[in-house]
Amino acid sequence: MTGTIDARLTELNITLPPATAPVANYVPVTRTGNLLFVSGQVSLADGAPIVGKLGENMDVAQGAVAAEKCALAIIAQVQKALDGDLDRVVQIVKLTGFVNSTGDFTEQPKVINGASDLMVEVFGDKGRHSRAAVSAAALPLGVAVEIEAIVEVA
Among 26, 98, 112, 151, fewest CB within 10 Å belongs to which? Predict the structure, then answer.
């Protein structure tokens, strides 16, 4: 039986990427009580890093797409942690977005909107969350964006 969120993903023509395995000594998701802490997911397209530095060689629209890809990876990790049942998501509690950007770039919130907008599009009111959007001088693999999440689940 297809769940409500699975149906919404289909309606939006969204296919989640595979949940990636950790590349170091950490786990992709830690659960404590009813909270999932999702490790930072980097911007990937078809498994390849989306690299770039906002304010140098990437614009806000491209950065927002990279952030959306991070959000898809977060949803994939949550889906795996919940044995496929995304309907168990009670609330996307918080996103923390890191934007690989120059020292004078100040539009990190517009970049992370790519992830925030996707969460609301997929989960509706359950996708509304608190957030931080911060600059980083560099990110792993030279990616443009990395986002971590806290998710309440049933």
Answer: 26
